[in-house]
Design a protein that fits this description.
This protein has 389 residues and is of the alpha/beta class. The protein has one domain: Spore Coat Polysaccharide Biosynthesis Protein SpsA, Chain A. Helices cover 50% and strands 13% of the residues. Helix 1 packs across helix 6 and helix 10 packs across helix 11.
Length: 389
């Protein structure tokens, strides 16, 4: 029982903290022997197609168009396509007056992946950039992304996702902001070791020639598109100098809805990305994929429960102070999480409780996502989460 406890605790700590620490140590050693790829100033910019799938985004779509058209990239090498399938508001009508962009609209709402697949034949660029309709890119984003394609090993490039967090942030904002800062650091180290293991739909790009059709019922299309390229031996680069900024979810309920969808999609992708999980293909990629993604999306919520129950039993049976102190520490952590829930509902801003609360929300979302996936209740049609203004 004690062995089971320590194994469970080790895997939990490794998943959320230990993997990052191990990455940091490995790349410190790697830097002693391997020089990073040197970019050339003479690299000719490739033609780029920006694909934006938008569903009922009338409140933000004009700002998104203006943001995209103002990006620092040669206009004769830039194609912008908006796909508004299934939109029932004024989104398509607001796009039509902008002659600089192409609009693809279909009344049927078949999901984001189906919309993207429908747009692929219209893409003329050597590089395709995917970005969400409710995010805004920094001016140099496209140039920062495409510079990595000078390296022939790179098949996709992920940009950075940034969450705007106000000083008066609530649990959803502060927790989401902290999570993405940590994620960004892990992605930077992942790429420095070998490759990223996925990409966020807010901003990523691929070599158009490497695009592989992904099943139309795919829930997290960004992750699958990028990982299919990695499964063919290419690297997914990471570029923090290209970033997409958005506000946090309106509240924890909205963030939970988004996390559950991602968790359901994560389980779906694990069943479909068999080459990535096979160490005989690309062992380093498999190590990164399992450590960074698979463990989070599968066993960690169950291990947290196992650690709590096993600790309680061992503390009762042994009556030793060490086990009692460990169990009390767990109780305090979950109590802080409950306080975070209470304070958020009362609109009281005490950030000390936000991280325990957000951590528990994340792991609950994994369980709920698993259940939703196995019950086949998760639609591929994208669900736009409400965001803070």
């Amino acid at each position: 029982m004690i062995i089971a406890f320590w194994i469970s605790l080790f895997l939990v700590v490794y998943t959320f903290i230990g993997y990052g620490f191990l990455l940091f140590i490995i790349i410190k050693i790697k830097r002693l022997f391997v020089r990073p790829f040197q970019f050339s100033e003479k690299f000719e910019l490739p033609s780029v197609t920006v694909l934006i799938a938008a569903w009922n985004e009338e409140e933000m779509i004009v700002d998104k168009i203006n943001n995209t058209l103002q990006l620092d990239y040669p206009k004769n090498k830039l194609q912008v396509i908006f796909i508004t399938d299934g939109s029932t508001d004024r989104t398509p009508d607001l796009i039509r007056p902008f002659t600089e962009v192409e609009l693809l609209h279909n009344n049927a709402r078949d999901g984001k992946m189906a919309a993207i697949k429908r747009a692929i034949p219209y893409a003329k660029g050597e590089v395709m950039v995917f970005t969400d309709a409710n995010t805004f890119l920094n001016n140099a984003a496209l140039k920062e992304l495409v510079k990595h394609y000078e390296n022939k090993k790179v098949g996709a490039v992920a940009g950075e996702k940034r969450i705007f967090v106000a000083e008066t942030a609530d649990a959803s904002s502060a927790g989401e902001g902290f999570y993405w800062k940590y994620e960004s650091k892990l992605k930077k180290w992942d790429y420095e070791l070998y490759s990223n293991v996925g990409a966020a739909g807010e901003l990523f790009s691929i070599r158009t020639a490497l695009y592989q059709p992904v099943e139309s019922d795919t829930i997290i299309d960004d992750h699958m598109i990028a990982m299919r390229i990695a499964e063919n031996g290419y690297v997914i680069a990471y570029e923090p100098g290209a970033y997409a900024t958005e506000t946090a979810s309106a509240d924890t309920k909205e963030e939970l809805k988004r996390k559950i969808r991602i968790a359901a999609g994560g389980i779906q992708s694990i069943f479909r990305l068999k080459k990535a999980a096979n160490p005989f293909n690309y062992p380093i990629l498999t190590f990164q994929y399992i450590s960074h993604r698979v463990l989070r999306w599968t066993i960690t919520p169950f291990l947290l429960l196992a650690v709590f129950i096993l600790n309680a039993i061992i503390a009762y049976q042994t009556n030793l102070p060490f086990w009692k102190a460990l169990f009390v520490a767990q109780i305090v952590f979950y109590f802080l999480s409950l306080l975070g829930l209470f304070f958020e509902r009362k609109n009281i801003k005490i950030k000390a409780f936000f991280i325990p609360y957000y951590f528990c929300v994340m792991n609950y979302a994994v369980l709920a996502g698993m259940l939703r996936y196995y019950r086949k209740n998760q639609s591929a049609a994208w669900e736009r989460s409400k965001r803070k203004s």
